[in-house]
Amino acid sequence: MWVVNTRSRKQAEELDVLLEARGAHPVSYPCIEIAPALDAGPLDAALRRAATGTYDWLVFTSANAVEAVEARLRALGIPASSISRMRVATVGSGTAAAVADRMGIDAELYPEEHLAETLAGQLVAMGARQVLVPQAERAREALVRILRESGVEVEAVTAYRTVLGSGGSDVPDLLRTGQVRAVVFASPSAVNNMAARLEREDGDWDDLRKVCIACIGPVTSAAAERRGLEVQVLAENHTIRDLVEGLERHFQEISEKESVQK
User: Same domain, yes or no, for 131 and 76?
Assistant: First the structure.
C-alpha cells in the first residue's frame, strides 16, 4: 500500500517509520518546508524580554515554534533555563514533548483537546496576564484573538515561515495511474501547498478524491474539506501514531468488508 507523506523532509521520518512497520510504502512528497523568519529582530527582542521576566506565560502552538525559539536562544547566548521562570503552555502533548526535549522545560498546560481555542480559554481561566506567542508567519488568529478579547496582553511574534516544499516522488503520475492508496496531511499548510504543487506539476486535484485522505486534527480536516476532499481518517489526538493507527483500522475495515462480500 502506497501512502503519500506530505510532511517536510525534517519531519517525515516518524511517519515513514510507522508506515513501514505496518507494511505500507511511504511516498515522499514534501508540501511544506520550515524556514526562519525573514526578520529575527522581533523574536530576538521578545526573547530578551522573556529572560528578564516580562511575561508570565510562554505559549507554543507547534514543535516548529519550539525549534525556532531554541535556535534563536542559542544564537543570542541566552540559556533556556533563564526563561524557565515563565509558565509554559502548548497546543498538544507532542509540542509539550518538544519543549522538554529541546529546552529541558516541562509544559504546565497542554489541553487534551488540541485546539488553540481550548488552550486560550484555559489560559484565561488560569489568570494569564502577559503572554508571549512565537508562531508561524501566517498563524491562525484564534488563540491571540481570544486572549486579547479576554483582556490578556499578548505579544505574538513570527518565529518561522512555512514555505512551499519541493522534490520527492512523481506523485501526480502515481495518483493518475492509481498507485496511491492514501495521502496524509498534518497541517492546513500541507493541504494548501499540495494544491499548489499539483497545479505546478500538471497534476489533477480530482485524483485525490479517489484515495483515502488522512488528517491530523479538525483544523487540517476542515482545510481539506474546504477544497472538496472527504476525510476518511481523522487523528483526534493530534499525533502521528494515532493517525497511522487510524489508517490501519480504515484499511482493515475495507478488507473485512471485501472478504464478507466474497
Answer: yes
Rounded distance between C-alpha atoms, residue 161 and residue 164, angstroms: 10
Cα(5)–Cα(29) distance, integer angstroms: 6
CA 152 to chain centre: 25
| Three-state DSSP class for residue 217 | helix
User: Structural domain of residue 75, as residue ranges?
Assistant: 35-163
Q: Which of 147, 163, 179 is the last residue before a domain boundary? A: 163
d(Cα 73, Cα 46) in Å, to the nearest integer? Answer: 11
CATH number at residue 71: 3.40.50.10090
Last residue of a domain, one of 163, 190, 224: 163
Determine what percent of the chain falls in helix, strand and coil, rounding each to the nearest 5: 50, 20, 30
Mark whether 116 and 217 lie in a shared domain: no
pLDDT in 10s for each residue of the chain, 262 residues: 999 999 999 899 999 999 999 999 999 999 999 999 999 999 999 999 999 999 999 999 888 999 999 999 999 999 998 887 899 999 878 889 999 999 999 999 988 777 788 899 999 999 999 999 999 998 888 899 999 999 999 999 999 999 999 999 999 999 999 999 999 999 999 999 999 999 999 999 999 999 999 999 888 999 999 999 999 999 877 789 999 999 999 999 888 877 776 5
